[in-house]
Amino acid sequence: MSSFKKKFSGAESRKRKNTQIASSSKLTKIHKFFKASSDIVELSPPAFLSEKQPSSPLSNTDVIEPAVTNNTANLSVAEIQSTEPSSSSSNISGEVVDSFIRFLLQEKYPTDRGHYLNELTENDTNLRKFILNHGTCQPDLVSFPRDLVGKRCFSKKYFKWTNQSGIEIQRTWLGYSVKLNRAYCEPCWLFADKKNKYYNSSWVEGIQDWRGLSKKNSIHEKSQVHTKSCCTYDLWKNSETIDEYISSELKSRVNYWRQVIHRIINVILTLAKCNLAFQGHQENIVSSKNPGNFLSLINLLATYDPLLESLIAKHKAGSVTYLSAKIQNEIIQLISTQIENEIFKEINTSPFYSIIIDGTQDLSKIEQVSVVFRYIVVQKDEIQRPIDVEIKESFVGFFNVKNRSAEGLKKNILDLLTSKGLDIAKCRGQGYDGARVMSGAYNGLQKKITELEPNAHYVHCAAHNLNLVIKYTPLNFVSKLLQSKNVDVISAQSMIKNAYDNLNRFRNTFEEFVTISSTIAKKWGLEPKLTSNRQSFVKKHFDELSNDTRFQDSLKKFEITIFNAALDVALMQLKVRFTYFNDIISKFVFLQSKNLIQLSDDDLYREAKSLADQYVNDFDKSLPNQVLDFRSCLREKIEKIDSVHNLAKLFICDFYTINSSFPDIATAIILFLTLPVTVATAERSFSKLKLIKNYLRSTMSQHRLKGLALISIEHERTNKMNFNEIIEVFANARRTDFST
Q: Of the spans 247-256, 421-430, 462-471, which averages the highest pLDDT?
């Protein structure tokens, strides 16, 4: 019996084909055989395996379809069927895309065009990476399906071609879909510019007409659209993605501008810390003869810095350079704000604070009030062990006060505290000078603050008081010592007492004074001799008992009328003007190392109880017992202590383990050290005020003045400043990405 296949006529073949198609359409859909339960998960691709087919129908039924396996996937077939065919991968969650990639990895040809029937969008970066990493689909099949008309088929030879020189070249762009039985261009499919007028979708959807395929390949690979697609394709392969390429370019630009801003900040800080002017006659770095200190420094640095040299070249071309006065003010404001935030963060962390205020007029006759906060900071190491107790007096700015009355000053202070989140209940001290509006006992500022917080004790500036005393005496060394921020009330009283004793002893050493003065006069070529004038006498009347008596010795006259008189005034002033120290010290008697050792248990208990009763919101009732126990534990160490500050270091730093046993001891020490002694820090700021707002800069705005003053006075903080934080804030304020 012959084994040849019977050939039907054309009409019979068409009839059989139509019958087969009709029968297939009546078959039950495959998803009907699966349960919709969440316990059963089938292997199926997500929305990318839509039923949507390419625009041209397949010409034969010999397309090789992969068999459905029993492996699991994350989505059921029912979920896939419910997905709209038109939905792109950009609308599908990342979990679905990952599930689809896991499905593709189980396929023999994961990059087969037939798996990706939906159009890829710009957001399908992960899928493009996947296709690039797994290469073009070029299956090594022995035979390919033939079409019904002409019996033609695809061939592996199309994957290569030989030029005139005999060099064999691989067509890596050409792909073949086993699922669709179509040839396609992978670069055009992934990266073709669909808006190009020469764009042809046939090489994207796939070609199935095998007639003249070699010629079609040659024409396509020389087309402009294909060439650009291949460039993009190779760019993705070499630089991973265009996004990363653009990101690399962006990072380079970001790094450039970060370095520029870093240099600008350094120049601004240098000028601000040296109290120098920024702007000149004209703000033009190229044409102006006097561009000012800021642009002159930039120009000088550009001589040695290629980056700034390129920036000046941009300035000449009219590009953005961030060298304008507006940018300078913005950066000054950012730096000063960061300093201010750091200061108030420390104040909020500290349990107590004191306010120190002093005022003066600037060159423009504007009343400037200098505000300083005194507080305690416990410095800690990397494992949070206390290593130092630091007394800080931090300047927070000059404020223009329009209402100079006590009520107006009070309102300004309360507004500042509220804006910075500070509670007036934490205020324990006020430091002002002797002006009536500040120190008035009934309507002064100190009285109005005390009404809000009774424990905010007023301390008259000791340096001011001492200056009033030493107007009559050459002693001023004590005044300089009192201006230190590390001085506490007890130390100040001790210095005043020593000054009093020294002056009193000096009063009784007139002969020694004369000897020393004579020696100095001879060194300078002067004759150490007092001039004597003729003595005149008042006529004695009849009823007077004695004659008029005058000093005959000019040296004795000098001793009585000048030397002793001046020292007596100074001694009296030292005795009277610092009596207020006694009121404060009497509350903290037990903190003096001498008293802490010598007082009896009953006296020590009484003094500690008195302090606890005065500050009921700050201390526990057990403070007296804590003081007694503290003395018994560290008696030998306390005997070697000479100040409350050193006592704080001993208790808080050296013996930090017992802090939890005597918590109120640390509170008492910190409270005492918080009390102000002088307003010297506020007064020193006026020296900076004269340098910053001078005759040539008399129209400076209040914000700029405050910012420059903060940078100049708190220069130690600026030296430790993190420029990256400033750059980030600067970039965010201008909606510019300077991130690293």
A: 421-430
